[in-house]
Amino acid sequence: xxxxxxxxxxxxxxxxxxxxxxxxxxxxxxxxxxxxxxxxxxxxxxxxxxxxxxxxxxxxxxxxxxxxxxxxxxxxxxxxxxxxxxxxxxxxxxxxxxxxxxxxxxxxxxxxxxxxxxxxxxxxxxxxxxxxxxxxxxxxxxxxxxxxxxxxxxxxxxxxxxxxxxxxxxxxxxxxxxxxxxxxxxxxxxxxxxxxxxxxxxxxxxxxxxxxxxxxxxxxxxxxxxxxxxxxxxxxxxxxxxxxxxxxxxxxxxxxxxxxxxxxxxxxxxxxxxxxxxxxxxxxxxxxxxxxxxxxxxxxxxxxxxxxxxxxxxxxxxxxxxxxxxxxxxxxxxxxxxxxxxxxxxxxxxxxxxxxxxxxxxxxxxxxxxxxxxxxxxxxxxxxxxxxxxxxxxxxxxxxxxxxxxxxxxxxxxxxxxxxxxxxxxxxxxxxxxxxxxxxxxxxxx
Length: 446
Prior knowledge:
This protein is α+β, with helices and mostly antiparallel strands and 446 residues long.
């Protein structure tokens, strides 16, 4: 029986030869098309990289275009997903929804622990104490903001280089008392006055660009509105009415946009706590000072940070600053900034309201014209009704004599003409009497 087993021996031998030949072909670098198809487990392993690539593409599809500005005005454009932005700026995930397309028509300025979320019209940015992250910077509407922000930061950087040298000389002359509480500030010229923090410089540029855009939109609206309304007052037609309807739609949308930005600024001005939270540089310096005090270098942090937090109104001759100014809730700088643009937006809103009042006045004038024409039609209808009544009386008499009723008047000759004339005169007199009564009651115009 052992000699009758050669078939199984040959099959295993041929299988081993094939395996060795396949390994030899792989080592020799032969084309895989000449080899036998791989096993099923190898097909599954090749499908894994395909799924991984699809997952990477899906993840990359959620990335959006951002532009980063630092304090010196240097910028870079990069693509980044939501998770990276959340970790970098330290904001909750719901704040990125505010910057999304769902809230594209809303206006918000939100204060967070490490950042400020700005959503003003088409400007959507995340501002920290050290950088600005601008969403969709290549849009046509955002380009003016990008150019102005780069110019503003670059100008501030160049002016601060020369200003810091003079501030260093004045710091060497300032005296600190033994208690360490009071710092005498010498006479300071206008060129050495403290400037706004970095986050407020960005906010100022954003508000300026948005207010300028809204002002130009209102100017275009005024330029188009008054000729259309004057034409409607002269000629009430379907074409002119359609143009006024389109004008009112544009005015309503523009008023809503201005009102949203104005309401957001008014909300911030009414809440001092929110304005305090917007001082990102102050909080950043306080954190640095706390860390410096823990490390034994708190006084250095204090002297370096004091110049960035001086108010413009507090830089006077012989004035005194305490170290508590770094921790108080003074929001005068931000309040003055917001009030300036709030008044500008209020003026823009008043312009829109004046255009709307002009539209309302024109509509009232057109309605008066239409009412006047309607009254004239009613008077004409009343006059025709009175005339019809008089003619009906004459027709009634003619109808009565048209019947076959025995009457002596039928046999008199030459009576037809005088009788018809008398009936006609009587009908005219009736018409005039009723018409005079209508005018006496002021049912008809003079």
